Structures are given as C-alpha cells and as structure tokens.
Amino acid sequence: MNKLVLKRKVNEVCFFVLVLLLVIVFISPFMVMVLTAFKTNSDAFTIPVRLLPRKWVAENFPAAFAAIPYFRYMGNTIFITVLSVIGQLLITPIVAYSLAKIKWKGADILSGLVMATMMIPITVTMVPLYKIYAKLGLTNTYVPLILPTFFGKAFYIVIVRQFFNGIPDSLIEAAKIDGANHFTCYGRIAMPLCKPVLTTIGIYAFLDAWSDYLYPLIFITKPEKYTLSLGLQQYMSEYSVDWARLMAAALVFVLPVILCFAIFQKNFVEGIATSGLKA
C-alpha cells in the first residue's frame, strides 16, 4: 500500500513539474514582451542580456501612443470587432438550429458542405474575394471585414450545431404540441440553453476580429482606416526598430484579449465541454 501511495505521489510531482515547465514555455514570450515594454531600447539589447530592466521606465507607453494615431486605430479595431461579434452571434445560432433541429430536405448535405468549407485554405479564396470586392468598389472600406460575419463562419456553425444536437428532440416536440412554431422553439427553448456555447463563439469571434492582420492588409490601404494590427507594423522601419515602444504598444493591444478570456473563462470552458468538441 505504501508503495502505491509513493508511486501516486511521484506521478503527481512529475505531472506538476511537467505542467510547470509547459507554463513557463508558453508564458515566457509574454513575460519578455511585458518586461521589454518597461526597458529603454538600448537596455533591451545590452550584453549581457538581463530579463529584468536595469532601469524601469514608463515613457514607452506615451511615446508609443504618440508615434502613430494609436487611439484612432484602436477605435477602428473596436468598431470592426463589435460588429463582427454581433454578426456571428446573430446568424450562427440561427443557421446551426436550422441544420440541427429543423427537418428539411438537404439539411445533411448542407451540413457536410459547411464542414467541407473548413478545409479550404484562406490563400485559395483571397484573390477571388479581393476581385469581387474591388468590382463592387468596397475596398478601403470595412465591409469586406464585417459583412462575412453576418453569414456565419463554418467553424462556429459546426460548434453550435453540435450543441443543438445535444438538446433532446422531446423538448422541441413538446413545445410544438403546445402550439409553438420553429421561431418560438428557437427563441424560448434553444437560445436560453445555448448561452455557454454562444459565449465561446463570442470569444472566438472577438479574437478573430481583434487580432486579424491578413484581411485588413488585403482590403485596407488608407492609413486612416488601419486597424491596430496594421498600425503596429509602422514601428518597423527600414533600418532600425524601437523594440521597447513596439512592445509597449503590443502590450496594450493584447490586454483586451487577456481580460476577455479572464472574465469569460468559466463560460468558455463550459461552452467547449458542452458543444461536442471533447473526445
């Protein structure tokens, strides 16, 4: 018995050490960014390299905000992100519910096509999308960044559809016997039950829109319409880079993401666990 207890203790210690090492590996880039944000640019590259700043400075933050129209770019990013999240939360559950709980001819085929689109690389669709929006005169606007979210994203639709599949059909049938139509079943039964998975979708949509770099790079060329992800590139000059200011600006950029996950972490984990993604 003592040997079993000792073996269990050793396994627990080994597991703890492994998790601690993984945490250090994953968090070390973020810690380097945070500490560099409080260094001078010369201190960031002084040999020997020190993790902690030799002198703590806070001037990098106001200097970073002054170097580019930071708050204008942040406003652009917030505008795109808010509308993108609203679009996904409005459309995704409607599409997912129709595929999961409404029996109509072709629902299974359409579900398969939706999942098949997830295997198409972004690079395949970039040029056709740009040509379409260019023909419509919508480049240098936020329409190409926001409009697709109001048609749903395949990955999000699959997640919510899996969640709706877990709702017993007897609940829907009982409501129909009482005279409820599909809209009533969706609004009064399905939607109240899917708050955890909608929180998950909202966090995913927020992360996608907030940190998106590729699509703004393709469709936006006017500097006044830049998002923060594009604006941070302006710190990269041809001959030198002020890494301390760049890290300060990047730290402010990632803080909303960290806060979003910290606030909704419980709902996020619950949404993943109940959406059929677990093994």
Tally of separate helices: 13
Rg, Cα atoms, Å: 24 Å
Helical content stands at over 70%
- Which band does the percent of strand residues land in? under 5%
Low-confidence parts lasting 5 or more residues at pLDDT below 50? none
Ends: how far apart? 33 Å
Outline type: flat
The biggest beta sheet reads: none
N-to-C SSE string, H for helix and E for strand: HHHHHHHHHHHHH
Mean pLDDT: 84
Indicate the structural class.
Answer: mainly alpha
Strands, count? 0
Question: What is this entry, summarized?
Answer:
This protein has helices spanning 2-37, 60-67, 70-101, 107-117, 122-135, 143-146, 154-165, 169-177, 182-193, 195-211, 214-219, 228-231, 243-274. With 279 residues, the chain is mainly α.
Structure description:
- With 279 residues, the protein is mainly alpha-helical.
- It is built from 13 helices and no strands.
- Helix 1 (2-37) packs across helix 13, helix 4 (107-117) packs across helix 7 and helix 7 packs antiparallel against helix 10.
- It is flat and about 75 Å long.
- The mean pLDDT is 84.
Top keywords for this entry?
single chain; flat; 279 residues
Provide the fold topology.
Blueprint: H1 2-37, H2 60-67, H3 70-101, H4 107-117, H5 122-135, H6 143-146, H7 154-165, H8 169-177, H9 182-193, H10 195-211, H11 214-219, H12 228-231, H13 243-274
Helix pairs in contact: 1-13, 2-13, 3-7, 3-10, 4-7, 7-10, 8-9, 10-13
